[in-house]
Every structure is written in structure tokens, then in C-alpha cells.
Amino acid sequence: MPNTLTNLIPAAYRALNVVSRELVGFIPSVQLDPSADMLAANQTIYIPAAPVNSAGKDITPAMAFPTAAYQTIGTKSHTLSKQRAFPFSWTNEERMSVNAGPGYLSINEQQIAQAIRACINEMEVDIAVAAKNGASRAFGATAGTAPVLGDWASVKKILDDNGAPSGDRTSVFDTTAGVALRSTSNLYKVNEAGDGSLLRQGVLGSLYGFNLRESAQIQSTTKGTAASATTNAAGYAIGATTLTLAAVGTGTIVAGDILTFAGDTNKYVVATGNADVSAGGTIILAEPGLRIAMSAATKAITVFGTSARNTAFSRNAILLSTRLPASVVGDLASDRQVVTDPNTGISFELSMYPGDRMVHYEVAACWGVTVIKPEHLAIIIG
Asked: What is the pTM of this model?
């Protein structure tokens, strides 16, 4: 009879500290709902989003009641889109053979830790993809080049201009950007930085109000193939997000592309792309949309190059919901336990399914990621 999971749990936690772990920067930095108990997988909830109030008026004394000022309340949808299990199995003969060497339990502990590692990395990737596709704007001079210190000051301006909360901000970036920061003399010279943590310990700390974190899952995005594309000649106001294209040029504009328009140096992120710019159609920019109004003339579109998409955001910009997969009395699992990853605080379900002279194990979780406030999220091009 195989050991119950209860006997495995303490050893599994020890294994978590031994198995290699990639850098995780997004999960500790986003808004985390670790229960989501009321949601079924693929069920959508709607989060209310009040519109900008543009109905300001002068106060005029009068004996009549003011007229009603109704608003259309928007929503953001959020779905637990993934139910994932990371399995491994043992036959009784396999257990007997390894017990004569390293021992079954020591290997089993590391298998649990590796399953948790794989699941955490997948969550981190999902957040990184959502972030690079859902950011409001981007900053950076050269695609494929590590960012410089001033880039963080510029994305701070983007978030400030968009009205993002000034507190609880984080910048998550890849290790290439981490090297660039650690090589910046203003930060590692103790007499200039006022702190020896970076020089002595490599601790990045904070910069311009951002908590600095590295992630192994920062996305390096291949740009769309659009060339010679333009907007139509309708003209667009500040804040416009849906732009109609003229039926010229070739190629595609894809979600996550970074665009500039003739006469406007802002780098906008595409929320919804266009599969064939030669046929016209539309593209949708992430909120808050255009920062500079377009005159009634066609504007040439430039797609910024393939690059790493480092990020800067307020915690409330991105929502991660997690819960344990649903289970009922009577299914085939003989034992279930909850294991919480000490690195991220995420809980996982560890299940054991006994078979005919073998045992099957699964580490499982259910989760979903949504960018709730694109205005509070920006890209640092790398």
C-alpha cells in the first residue's frame, strides 16, 4: 500500500527548497485573488468600471432640481480560463527498484516540487503575455537593447499621466535589464545611491517608486508584418481607441504590437490587431487611447521592432485568480492534500489515485489572468 499524502507533505516542502526555480516577478506583484471559490472553470464574472466623468458644469443657483446625470457603467470580464494538472506515476516494481538505491520518497518529493515549479512558470507566462498585450503605452528607444535608467523615469510619467495610483507600483523585467540596472554606477556607488545593498548583495530594491523584480518569463515579442499602412483621413480625438485603416500597405498588425503614428512620438500598444491592413478595417489601441489628436489626414503607421516587453504597473492593473480544482466525494482519488508554494503563496491540490499495482499523482490548480486597468500598465522596451 503506498504512503498517504500526509506523510509526503513535509518532505515535499523540503524539496521545494532544493529543486531549481525560475525567477518569479509577476505573481507577487499583481492583484491576487487566491480563492475564487464561487467561479467554475470558464465561467465569466464582470467587474464594474465607471466611465470618466466629463459632465462638469458651472454651479448656477436656481429653484429647480438639477436634471439627472446618468452614466453608462462599463465592465471588464474575468474568467478562470485554465484547469491544469501536472501528473506523474509509479508502478510497484519501479518503487521496489529505486528503494534499493536513492529511495522512492526522495524522488517523489522532487517530482512534487517539479510539478509545482511547472505550474508556477505557466501562471507567470500567462501574466507576462496578458501584460505585454494589455499595456497602455510603451517607452524605449531601440528594440533589442537593454533599457537605460531614464526609461524607468519615462514609464513613471506614462503611469502618472494616466492617473495610476502612486503607491504599490512594480517593474518586472528580464535578467538582461537586471544586468543593465546593476551596471548603472549611480545605483551601485554607495556614495551616490546612499545604500550598499546593490553593490554588496545584488539587491535591486526600488527605483522611481517602483519595486524592482526580475522574471524568467518576460516575453520577447515578434512584431507584426505591416508595412506602408496608414490610418484613414477621418481624424481622431484625444482618447480615441478604435482607428480605421486606409486600404493600403501589406501585412498584419497583431495584439501586443507597439505602434507610432506620423506626427506623434507616443508608442501605443495594440489591444486588437488587423489580419490584413491592405483590406482596411480597424485596429483597437489599449486604453486610454490617443494622447495627441489626429488631424483629418492619413497618418503613416510604424510598427516598432521585435523586442523584450519589460513592464511597469500598479498592482490593481492585473488580476490573477486562483483556486483548487473542483472535487466531489466519490471520485477516484483516494487522498488529497493542499500544498502552498512558499515562494509565491499559491496553493495547489495534490491528489493520489491508486491503481492496479501502481499509483498516479497529480499537482493541480485552476486560474485566470485579466488586465483590469490598461491605463495603469506600461511597457519598457528591451
From this structure: 0.88
The residue ranges of every structural domain in the chain are 5-49+78-132+319-370
Element of type H or E holding 101: none
Q: Which residues contact 70 (CB under 8 A, 6 or more apart)?
A: none
Query: What tens digit of pLDDT does each residue of 186-233 get?
Result: 665 544 555 555 544 444 778 899 999 999 999 988 899 999 999 999
Please name which of 244, 288, 280 lies closest in space to residue 376, comparing C-alpha atoms: 288
Sequence-ordered alpha helix ranges (H) in 274-362: none
Per-residue DSSP letter, 263: T
By the 10 Å C-beta count (0-12 exposed, 13-18 middle, 19+ buried), 331 is classed as exposed
Specify whether the CB–CB gap between 117 and 22 falls below 8 A. Answer: yes
- Yes or no: say if 147 and 309 are a contact pair by the CB < 8 Å rule: no
**Residue 371: CA count within 13 A, CB half-sphere:** 24
- Which range has the worst mean pLDDT, 34-48, 146-160, 183-197, 323-337? 183-197
Identity at 248, one-letter amino acid code: V
User: If DSSP codes are grouped into helix, strand and coil, which group holds residue 357?
Assistant: coil
Contact 377, 317 (CB under 8 A): yes
AA letter at 342: P
End-to-end CA distance of the chain: 54
Q: Cβ–Cβ contacts within 10 Å for residue 50, how many?
A: 9
Candidates 169, 140, 123, 148; CA nearest to 27 is 123
The distance from CA 32 to its chain's CA centroid, rounded to whole angstroms, is 12
Q: Is 7 helix (H, G, I), strand (E, B) or coil?
A: helix
Beta carbons of 266 and 258 less than 8 angstroms apart:
no
**Three cell numbers written together for 328:** 466531489
Whole-number percent of the chain with pLDDT over 70: 90
One-letter amino acid at 130 equals A
